[in-house]
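Troubleshooting entry. Yesterday's outputs looked truncated, so today I'm pasting the complete records for two proteins to confirm everything comes through intact. If either block looks cut off, that's the bug. Protein one:
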Amino acid sequence: MRNKMKWMLAIGLLSCSAVMAQQQSDIMSVSASVNAERAVLAVDKNVKTMWTLPSQALKAEQWLMFTIQQPGDVCELDLQMQGINKNDLKGLLDIYVTYDPMNLGDPVDYQVSGNDKSMKVKFTPKYGAHVKLNFKSGKADKPFSLKEVAVFLTEKVLTDSKGKVTDRPYMDASLPVDERVESLLAAMTPADKMELIREGWGIPGIPHLYVPPITKVEAVHGFSYGSGATIFPQALAMGATWNRQLTEEVAMAIGDETVIANTKQAWSPVLDVAQDARWGRCEETFGEDPVLVSQMGGAWIKGYQSKGLFTTPKHFGGHGAPLGGRDSHDIGLSEREMREVHLVPFRHVIRNYDCQSLMMAYSDYMGIPIAKSTELLQRILRQEWGFNGFIVSDCGAIGNLTARKHYTAKDKIEAANQALAAGIATNCGDTYNNKEVIQAAKDGRINMENLDNVCRTMLATMFRNELFEKNPCKPLDWNKIYPGWNSDSHKAMAHRAACESIVMLENKDNLLPLSKELRTIAVLGPGADDLQPGDYTPKLQPGQLKSVLTGIKAAVSKQTKVLYEKGCDFTETGMTDIPKAVKTASQADVVVMVLGDCSTSEATKDVRKTCGENNDLATLVLPGKQQELLEAVCATGKPVILILQAGRPYDLLKASEMCKAILVNWLPGQEGGPATADVLFGDYNPGGRLPMTFPRHVGQLPLYYNFKTSGRRYEYVDMEYYPLYRFGYGLSYTSFEYSGLKVQEKPNGNVTVEATVKNVGGRAGDEVAQLYVTDMYASVKTRVMELKDFARIHLNPGESKTVSFELTPYDLSLLNDHMDRVVEKGEFKICVGGMSPDYKANNEIKHSVGYSDKKKGVSGILNYTHEFGADFDLSVSKVEENLLNDQKTVWVSVKNGGTLMDTGKVEMFVDGKKMGDAIHYELGPGEEKLIPFKLSKDNKQPVAFTTKYKMVAL
């Protein structure tokens, strides 16, 4: 039997070589440093037309770059030139072949043959999608032309050691995925494996093994590469809609534009729970609550995946609570805090959606950089939650393990080994593609077992999703506006999303909505005619962003005079036009001021961003001279409406005192201006609600609604505890009343909650009914309140609707003093209202939770009678002997005989000593998991397996 198995294994390990042939590749797009409009003449297959470099251009470096139809191993260029001979070519020309146009790498070493009119440039095949011809400065003094260029790729056919074509078992789609993975792994060299996990604007693939590429995009609020795709509201704005269905539809639209661009994977959505408004990346999140982030993020994933695309939720995990709001400065979050808050959205989407990939964070988990955290990336993510996709590193995170940041690795080889052990399969950055690291893989200094394991995760994902059979991926033409981008229907959806996201914070004396017949409106501020779309925005098309000024001008009557003055820059503190703005304001009946963040496309140069990735603030005062501008204009006595165009909460304490009305339109996407005008003039009734708490002062931070009880006082000596505007808050042009709370405990432990919401005002509008739960007494300290569910509903004047929610025992569970998940019987306060409940920040704070205005929300006490908890049974299921080595596999069964899903871990002890790593699990009632442990076949020592409360001997 053993010899037979060895023979079968040898059959699977065919020695492969390659027979080379060439095929010409079509060129998809071309660009140039000069005479760009004529660059296409070098690839039009007409030798009578040409791209020319004039004499005056030769004093500087010049280039021609083209994208080929399908990535592959480029091996030859045929150049037909005029004005240059082949002997001079090599001194003049550098050639780059790359998959990543932003990272050219080294030029190829080439040889020139042929004649002066038709030159054949040959080099060792190099994989890429882009070829750049770089003409050095000062090497030619006479003009020359490129008539035609042709690109040739190697065409490889795999053969076995006898020269016969193999059947490539892994290309047989009928085989099980695992079998295909192992077949392909057996054919891969260490260099092939390193090539597989190298990232360069996606996964480049391995053509000679038929491994397909995977193209990717950042898609937080639209297709962010190239130029011309629809720009939707930034994620925090979508969080403010509290609308799952709308978020799903927006993601579907982004998905359509992704498919059109031949792209497969999105590095989105962001599932960080943002707990500090100083953090620049708040704008990319859905807010500060784990349930809101879970639901909105899940809706985004559902919509995007419905188009057959890959999602990559990020940044796993604990990234949204940095120390002092400074990006990636670890605050030392405990396991309890992580499991109660920051891991919740990731667990939700991994368990409910088939996420093909996931991006790890720059931050730490339990003192370990996540780039090397096997606890988080292996035991929790894979073993507990069952994630079976591949892990992407955030850009530079693996290299950060060296002295560049974390000092856990002395060099990139050690950093690569740490990351591979953690299971990171794709490296955005400079480690897996480092020459020394690749050489280390070839000579055995990279752990091959770990390298194989990460390759398995990626290959299995490719096979499961049929990419070997029908891969849609093609290189992006960065200069092309693809058909279907920014369509009328997508513009309409972006407009609707922007409308639904707008939150009204103040409306004194019912100033809003404004009449369209006003005589004069002054529109002031740096954002008034400069709409900010947010980070990860593509290069802007002329006129694509519609500003608030544009929206107002289009909305008002012909008789209304609209005055505009910028007043100051977003950030500059030097010269301003504040006096001009004050003068303009004094001439108006009403003033609209658009102030806030500068956060826009990376292609927009010469701006200083105040928000977005790695743009954190120390204070939350409006940047630059904006606060000074606001106060000066308000001093005129004119009614001022503040539009906060921002990617985070700001300190609006003074604004709330001075301004007649305040709207937050966030970073509202390309249709943000008209949408804001719709709200200003009453064409749309604002229904957005705050996804983050607005503090009174930056000194209160971190400040979020779902805090835990204090051991002393809550307030400061010089400031009260309460926020300025609390989580879930938002005003409307109509009024809603709540009544008829009904709470029922069902026999299975579920709890149904109902309440009636009535529109008692004179306008139709949207209300967001929010369900909060307070666990009054528990074995551990719990949060003062927690959002559990929500529903955005539309009500006409006088109309009533009943909102219904159902809570499961897991929704009511906690981690007790042993870190076991349980449901404890006792009192739960149930609140349903249009915002998070009131409270008195004093002793007995939980007793004060509720709605001081009984019409704005209803509350009651549930005396819950059930108790739930897990009970894990442990047994040895079977023992298998491996005939090819001296090991046996012991399969240990863990089964949850209890009543609640929970986590745990199994450890193996041999002769009283712990062996290997603990294996984690998460099991619901009645679920079982078989866990394999490796043991020497000749072991005579006693063997035991343990969980937290059980032990079984072999």
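Protein two, checking that the full record survives here as well:
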Amino acid sequence: MKLGLMFGVKIAAAFCAATLSYASTDNPLTLWYNSDAAGEFTNALPIGNGYMGGIIYGGVTKDIIGLNESTVWSGGPGDNNKQGAASHLKDARDAMFRGDYRTAESIVSNYMIGPGPASFQPVGDLVITTSHSGATNYRRELDLKTAIAKTTYTSGGVKYTREYFASYPDHVIVVRLSADKSGSVSFGATMTTPHRNNKMSNSGNTLIYDVTVNSIKFQNRLNVVVDGGTVSVSNGNINVQGANSAMLVLTIATNFKSYNDVSGDPGAIAADIMSKVKGKSYDDLLSAHLKDYQTIFNRVKIDLGTADASAGDITSTRVKNFNSTNDPSLVELHYQYGRYLLIASSRKGGQPANLQGIWNKDTNPVWGSKYTTNINLEMNYWPVETANLGECVWPLIDKIKSMVPQGEKTAKVHWGVDEGWVEHHNTDLWNRTAPIDGAWGLWPSGAGWLSTHLWEHFLFNPTDKAYLQDVYSTMKGAALFFVNSLVEEPETGHKYLVTAPSDSPENDHSGYNVCFGPTMDNQIIRDVLNYTIEASKILGVDEDVRARMEATVKRLPPTKTGKYGQITEWLQDWDDPNNKNRHISHLYGLFPSAQITPEETPDLIKGAGVTLKQRGDDATGWSLAWKINFWARMHDGDHAYTMIRMLLTPNKTYNNLFDAHPPFQIDGNFGAVSGVNEMLMQSHNNRINLLPALPSQWKDGSIKGIRARGGFEIDSMAWKGGKLTYVAIKSDVGQTLNLVSGTNTFTTTTVPGKIYEFDGNLKLTNQPFEPVTVPGKIQAESYIAMDGVQIEDDTEGEPNLGWINDGDWSTYLVKVPTAGTYTVTARVASEAEAASTITITDSTGKALATLTVDPEKTNGWNDWYETTADIALAAGEQKLRFEYSGESNFLMNFDWFSIAKGTDAVPEARKTVTMLDVRPVSLSKGSVSLMIRSNAGFKVSLYTVQGMLVGTHEGFGSSLVEFGEDGSLARGNYIAVVTSGNLQKTLKIRAF
């Protein structure tokens, strides 16, 4: 930088100050209890590494750790297609098209539904027994910062500790038992399973458990390492006596290799895993676990306000009392718990998180603990990108790609389609894709919805064309199924292309499920076709296929409103305003899609609001989580918060914070994380909207680490009094940044790896500033830093500072040639009843002058007058901070201030330069142009937003100034600093 040029001061202090209000407990990110789980699954604490899950009950004399492995399922390879189903399509369609839904439903139920899929199975239990009795000082906890569960208690005057974690790097579950008195650790350990085909053996200090469940064979290996004491192994039991401490290390391996290959050797795999951890100490295993886990978990920090005094209470008590405490730290805990659960249940190499994540104790679990693809599996992964959990998405991506062969078979057998793949509303480990259960299962849009997740990952990583190339064929196959299976409907007169038969997930019209062209289908199909079209353009392939897709999109039914003003759920206006069904499928276009937005489709937004009010607020846990996202997209933060309050109750959240349908379904945990992110930041439709649905309950707070589409990360963001105060955004890949906060907008090209900092007005604070030389005049909006004030336009369209509250401030950069006493004049306006003041301080906080805003001299927010005071200034470049004080809610509007020598400050300024008007104009691509009007000479300096000088231009009077007239300027934002005598203006200008 030259000639005193500097970058704006970072105002990260605002962010730091906002992060100091965490809960008063030692660790606010801990679930804790003063009793064991008493055999209740939803009291127990979960750990997991993506491959294996453990659920810890924490009993003193008998501690049970329930075990799962992501590939232990019932059933085996094969499909569940209903042979001959496609031959009944015409009859079912004809019946629907003539309005005979009873016949159509009968045809579908009798001839087009396949057998149910497999279910996720428990491995069994790790059981630890002791002779301890009369335990006191009991505590059971799960520390989300470390992913370590712990049980502590005192027995016989000795404090005992058990620590449990699941390591992804080492592929093991670790349990460490210790005591505060040497030689006090004595216990037994064994494994059990509910599956009859099992065999226990041992090799040294390692128990080996071989179990078979249908086609799946798995082997558990449990090893013990002790410090002191003795170890014996017999009859399937490990016995430790008199040790100082002991470590149990367990792994589980299966014969599963893929959906159609179970030829793996679980014994060899388990032996290899255990050989690699042999010789590693507890500290070694712990260190590797923490490095892996905390790299992911620590990316995001959230503070929603000062914790309630009850924040240290037992976790289940906090849930019980949340609707009276509104403790923001419980929302923070629930949010981070959701992130923890996804890290624990979904990592590369494992299977996707299912209906219960990776935790299930039953051999016949509710809904099979499988993958329900008409909402639940998709909801599991809503937060994966925004919550900065990129490592956790790969099991889903790999799963979707692997489903194609099975989906192609089902497309042929059930729909007579030779090109494309289909998935209905459920699948399992074996990738079965046929419709199941009944007529409500014939919903052909599962592959379409799943494929949108492939595109979403690309939107967050928009330069990864290798990834897009890898998933493109899967997306194309899902799209082509619809191109080849949609039929022309005869009812509306528009000859729309529709799915037929289908259903609106798990809802009915007059008792019938089957229908044609339900709204959700149309919205999903529109997305998958448009996404695939765009992908083909990016990759430069399939122009002919693209044309077919484009033709199909044009003939899809539009989303429309019905007789009650609601979004219609079906092609026909059949909606019942009293229907409270938990599924609100026809608002897919509102969320997770972005076809319905306040900006682009205000009429449909009104319709969505009617639909949500008709369905009501109360619902199952997962449905409440969906509604958080809905209301966030409606930009109604208080209603979204009402959904959070309803979710965080004992009826919808279990003691261990698992989501309650009821019973347990984990998707509500994940959907809630997504909902909070949507309340604080939205990034659909090529813009990042900050605090779009901030509830009044969270008036002060901060967040860091969440991600936005376009390859951006919210490095840090803070707000105060419900208004944005600071945001720093990191550009990962150098895409164009389109930023929105309220009525403020900002657009710029970006540099990969650079962080862009903004104040609450979206003024770029790490932009170049030149000091104004005294005597001189500064526009109020030309600050270099601020807190609380907002830039607004006056009645003539000129910017000024408004919405000024007591305690707000703004800072300006000046250069004083000679020390002395000067006159400072401010142009202000007010409608407040009481007087207010502007105190000017230097960088040390010393008060230099006070300006009074007198309500007797101004009668409105644009009724301007000038107030003056003397100010003593030292020589040199310096920052002046204007601090605003007063008793009224809003104090004043502030237009400009001038500093001049002596008492003739304003007349002297007007004698030299009385006018400087700068307006951007658009001339040609690759250039920026300014129309400058002055009654004196002027100088224009043009900078990039990174502070690099592009060029200068000098002139006199009125003149058009253009930089890059040859089209040489790169597209993006620039900063123009225009000085004329003692006047200066700084503005953003964009080259197109």
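Both blocks look complete. Sanity check on protein two: DSSP finds 20 helices and 51 strands in the chain.
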